[in-house]
Amino acid sequence: MPPVITAFESSPDRGRGLARDMRVRWALEETGQPYDVRLLSFEAMKQPAHLALHPFGQIPTFEEGELALFESGAIVLHLAGRHAGLLPDDANARARAIAWMFAAVNTVEPPIVELSMAGIVERGKPWYEARLPMLQNRVRTRLDQLSSRLGDAEWLDGAFSAGDLMMVSVLLRLRSSGLLDDYPKLSAYVTRGEARPGYRRAFAAQLAVFTGKPAG
Amino acid sequence: MPPVITAFESSPDRGRGLARDMRVRWALEETGQPYDVRLLSFEAMKQPAHLALHPFGQIPTFEEGELALFESGAIVLHLAGRHAGLLPDDANARARAIAWMFAAVNTVEPPIVELSMAGIVERGKPWYEARLPMLQNRVRTRLDQLSSRLGDAEWLDGAFSAGDLMMVSVLLRLRSSGLLDDYPKLSAYVTRGEARPGYRRAFAAQLAVFTGKPAG
């Protein structure tokens, strides 16, 4: 039996691939693993059956045999540890790739989420415009630093890894803001990620949930 | 040669143990590893020598032999993978402990940082009071869910793990807000973490940097 992941029945991003199941789908595709998807309504996500799998009532989850996991980063790391394709063999390079995974979710993503949440929840508030430069500058600080480190390299540390998978996924959340346009190296990095066959298969599969048409 | 970590020469929290080097010190103590500390000024953190170690110009970093790492979560996980004491032996239980590490830094910590940053940066702004309930509610949502999951258990999933180390460290950032007081199970959980000998040794060591008195 292939593993089962959960995803939104009706994704808030309308199939743009920004929901966090995309990260897990991408990792499954990069490692060549088949998988099944169980779609959840927002109501079902808050029910005890799902909370038993995911204490914070979110998606994705991952079930395989007796193992149930939550948190996209943890699921991607689990897959990367069990299947070739997402982590280098060398122990030190492996630890560095994992550091990039944590950097993606703990250092780069939070100011991006803060900016996009403000755009959704506080756009009509009198302070929205006044706060916007501060929120954008927090993101720019991280993009400046990340772009400096990446330089002209293809990926963050040698070959494509789970660290790049997570970082590209996090940066994609910025596309609609236009902020990424000021960073040609990072824009090209994201485009390289999106061009990978594994990304394209994963993207098509999540889009098919929204359009109702089968992927591929 | 023991590994070398970096920490603030002058910690913004005045030795309350909230800087992220504390997480790494705690992991080193739990696993019984000696270590050296290199203290950095804020100016030194932005210099090329440090940026080569930490692309985002922060602390902590971890250097051992040819390996250099950044991101406290990644360093704790690296230590947990190499030394006994922070991850269970069973593969599935290990994956679940790592899921709690990611949950700590990606699901629970961001709204806590957002709340505390607003208190530092926006306290004088006309919108501060109006936004405060929203920021507090985001944190409470996570605390409600975490408290439900923890229930009357001692730790999040069986024995104390790197997942608890990260989660307790994240929750400690809330103490000054008073929000934790409404959650007796989580307060007791944090207190259990702080009572561990490894935590106490790590806390004393980071406090000694601030007071100028040797630890212990």
- Which two chains form the greatest contact, residue counts included? A-B, 45 and 45 residues
Count up the domains of chain A. Answer: 2
Radius of gyration of chain A: 17 Å
The helicity of chain A comes to 55-70%
Terminus-to-terminus distance of chain A: 22 Å
Biggest sheet layout of chain A:
4 strands, mixed
Structural class of chain A: alpha+beta
H-E order of chain A: EHEHHEEHHHHHH
Give the tally of β-strands of chain A: 4
CATH topology of the largest domain in chain A: Glutathione S-transferase Yfyf (Class Pi), Chain A, domain 2
Poorly predicted sequence stretches spanning 5 or more consecutive residues of chain A: none
Choose one word for the global shape of chain A. Answer: globular
What is the CATH architecture assignment of the largest domain in chain A? Up-down Bundle
Rounded mean pLDDT score of chain A: 96
Q: Per DSSP, what share of the residues of chain A sits in E-state strands of 2 or more residues?
A: 5-15%
Tally of contiguous helical segments of chain A: 9
InterPro entries (chains A, B): Glutathione-S-Trfase_C-like (IPR010987), Glutathione-S-Trfase_C_sf (IPR036282), Glutathione_S-Trfase (IPR040079), Glutathione_S-Trfase_N (IPR004045), Thioredoxin-like_sf (IPR036249)
Protein name (chains A, B): Glutathione S-transferase family protein
